[in-house]
């Protein structure tokens, strides 16, 4: 499951991650903009491995401190992880893709971003780029199937 831009909206977080738990999702990628340590606790309370970065709204030091302890893998700027045989880069702002990933010999299969509060899937680039939408705006997230390299967007109105 790919989520981002939760901005401390605990009700939406619990709804979305509850879906992940019921569907036996093997990992959660969060593209940053947590805002609060309570948001971190809401996601990690479901016991699903969490891979995440910080966003520009994550100005409280306790958010990063909590993620260091509770996240499976965390960095304040960018991550490169391997899940289900796919190499995935994660950063909050799409404008940082070039800085951390593009033009480098990383052999990435996927790049995950947040920040813009909109869903997006690149179809014209050699590396798939996904933005899942914003949890702050409702039950908005993406399911990425590592076996097929396909993404499905789940989109809801604000709650």
Concise account of the structure shown:
The protein is α/β, with parallel strands linked by helices.
Describe the structure.
The protein has 159 residues and is an alpha/beta fold. The chain has one domain (2-154): 4-Layer Sandwich (Purple Acid Phosphatase, chain A, domain 2), CATH 3.60.21. It has helices spanning 10-22, 37-44, 61-70, 97-100; strands at residues 2-3, 28-30, 50-53, 73-75, 78-83, 86-91, 110-112, 119-121, 128-132, 141-145, 150-154. Helix 1 runs parallel beside helix 2 and helix 2 (37-44) runs parallel beside helix 3. The radius of gyration is 14 Å and the shape is globular. It starts with a strand and ends in a 5-residue tail after the last strand. The model has no long low-confidence stretch (mean pLDDT 95).
Question: Layout of helices and strands, plus pairs?
Answer:
Elements: E1 2-3, H1 10-22, E2 28-30, H2 37-44, E3 50-53, H3 61-70, E4 73-75, E5 78-83, E6 86-91, H4 97-100, E7 110-112, E8 119-121, E9 128-132, E10 141-145, E11 150-154
Parallel strand pairs: 1-2, 2-3, 3-4, 6-7, 7-9
Antiparallel strand pairs: 5-6, 8-9, 10-11
Most strands sheet: 5 strands, mixed
Biggest sheet strand order reads: 5-6-7-9-8
The CATH superfamily title = Metallo-dependent phosphatases
Question: In percent terms, what proportion of residues is strand?
Answer: 25-35%
- Per DSSP, the total helix count is 4
Under the CATH scheme, the architecture is 4-Layer Sandwich
Report the count of strand segments: 11
Q: What is Rg?
A: 14 Å
SSE order, one letter for each helix or strand: EHEHEHEEEHEEEEE
Number of domains: 1
Overall SS class:
alpha/beta
Fill in the CATH topology. Answer: Purple Acid Phosphatase, chain A, domain 2
Name of the top-level CATH class: Alpha Beta
What is the overall silhouette? globular
Helix fraction, binned, reads 10-25%
Uncertain segments of ≥5 residues (pLDDT<50)? none
**Alpha carbon gap, first and last residue:** 20 Å
Average predicted local confidence, pLDDT: 95
């Amino acid at each position: 499951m790919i989520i981002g831009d939760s901005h401390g909206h605990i009700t939406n977080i619990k709804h979305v991650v509850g879906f992940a738990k019921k569907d036996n999702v093997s990992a959660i990628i969060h593209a940053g903009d947590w805002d609060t340590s309570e948001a971190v606790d809401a996601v990690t309370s479901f016991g699903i491995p969490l891979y995440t970065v910080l966003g520009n709204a994550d100005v409280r030091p306790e958010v990063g401190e909590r993620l260091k302890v509770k996240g499976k893998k965390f960095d304040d700027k960018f991550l490169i992880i391997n899940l289900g045989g796919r190499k995935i880069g994660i950063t909050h702002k799409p404008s940082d893709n070039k800085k951390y990933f593009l033009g480098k010999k990383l052999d990435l299969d996927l790049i995950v971003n947040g920040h813009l509060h909109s869903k997006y899937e690149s179809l014209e680039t050699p590396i798939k780029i996904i933005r899942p939408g914003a949890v702050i705006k409702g039950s908005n997230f993406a399911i990425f199937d590592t076996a097929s390299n396909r993404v499905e967007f789940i989109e809801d109105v604000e709650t």
